[in-house]
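Annotated sample (chain length 184).
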Amino acid sequence: MTEKTKYNEDTVAVWKLPLADGIHEIEFEHGTATGKRIIRLDGKIVRRKDWMFRLVGDEVFDIDKVQCTIKVEPDGLFMYTYDLLVDGKKLEEFCEYISKNRSTWLIITDNGVENRIILDKATMDIFVNGTQVTDAMSEFIENGTETHFSVGEMLVTIRTEHSCDKKIGVVHSLFVNGVIVSEL
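Output written by the structure step:
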């Protein structure tokens, strides 16, 4: 099945949103004759309005504690633009903010389950599949710290150390059973 046939004919926009628990797909249908609006999150309808006289305006919904807004604005005669705002930022700005303020890794357990690990660089909070790790143990090492926790049977360590380069600053590395994992 091609990407085009995957969506309904009234689908006007599809966005990929990276959050702590994974990458979510947001699909927006807009019937420009009827005003119909449908928002799907990961394939499931989260908001539906079948008939609206007003064809422009905002649709607000939440993904966990993250507020999302789809802005529908006129762009000429019977043409519209569609923007996704995440916590008040355009999607591109939100993604840029996330990439600067979080480190993300994907690890796979022995039984093939994918686990998304996120380190919030500002708070040093660690999340596994969107759930905060509360039983991590930290220790000081030369030039930084190591934080240890488990994912299933795997021992996971996040090493935070200064790079000794002012332009690079602090570096965060993730190890699973002593083997380094590349950041996404």
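Annotation: The first strand starts at residue 11 and ends at 19.
Annotation: The longest helix spans residues 91-101.
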